Amino acid sequence: MKIGLCSDHAGLEYKNKTISYLLSKGYEVANYGTDSPESCDYPDFAHALANAVESGEVDAGIAYCGTGNGMAMTLNHHRGIRAGLAWGTAIGKLVKEHNNANVLVMPARFISWRMALSIIRAWLDTPFAGGRHQRRIDKIPNV
Ligand code: RB5
Fold first, then answer.
1. Is 98 a catalytic site residue?
2. Closest atom of ligand 1 to CA, residue 8
3. Who's near 45: CB < 8 A, 6+ residues apart?
4. Ligand 1 pocket check for 70: Cβ under 6 Å
5. Which of the residues 9, 47, 78, 98 is marked catalytic?
6. Does domain 2-137 fall into CATH 3.40.1400.10?
7. Cα(120)–Cα(53) distance, rounded to whole angstroms?
8. Atom of ligand 1 nearest to the CA of 70
9. Which of 55, 65, 122, 134 has the greatest CB tally within 10 Å of its CB?
10. pLDDT, tens digit, for every residue of 69-109?
11. Residue with the nearest Cα to atom 3 of ligand 1?
């Protein structure tokens, strides 16, 4: 499985730690930036990750910004993206089980690295439940 990563400056440290963690677990990764601690604009990186997921260049994505909201808002403008914001382990599990999020978004300024790891594991290890949840996902697009 190949996972794409992105962040703005606020999420840079956790993004880089996530890349190391995923590599250590045998995942393939692709980094869509930022790679600088300088202040930057999260959409520049969110769109790059979203395009990669939509084109199949990567199977799924993980994104960080300070609150997670800017990344989630931008990612969810893409038709092929279901980006879910998670700040606790149970939400990390449910965002896959119920929402089949293909991009996991986390608020780097509001969770510990230990929590981020726990959320990532929950999201990766939990299967999508399908059934009534698939029906609901099918109703998300309004055009
Ligand atoms: C950057 O200061 C901050 O606005 C950004 O990381 C994010 O929280 C936006 O949603």
1. yes
2. 6
3. 6, 7, 8, 32, 33, 34, 63
4. yes
5. 98
6. yes
7. 17
8. 10
9. 65
10. 999 999 999 999 999 999 999 999 999 999 999 999 999 99
11. 66
65 is catalytic: yes
Q: Tokens 């962040």 identify what position?
A: 7
pLDDT, the chain, mean:
98
Domain coordinates of the chain in residue numbers?
2-137
Task: Please state the pTM of the whole predicted model.
Answer: 0.98
Report how far ligand 1's centroid is from the alpha carbon of 10 (Å). Answer: 7
Q: What is the pLDDT of residue 143?
A: 67
CA distance 83 to 76: 6
Write the Ramachandran bin of 139: left for phi over 0, alpha for psi from -120 to 50, otherwise beta.
alpha
The closest residue, in CA terms, to atom 5 on ligand 1 is 66
Reduce the DSSP state of residue 119 to 3 states and report it: helix
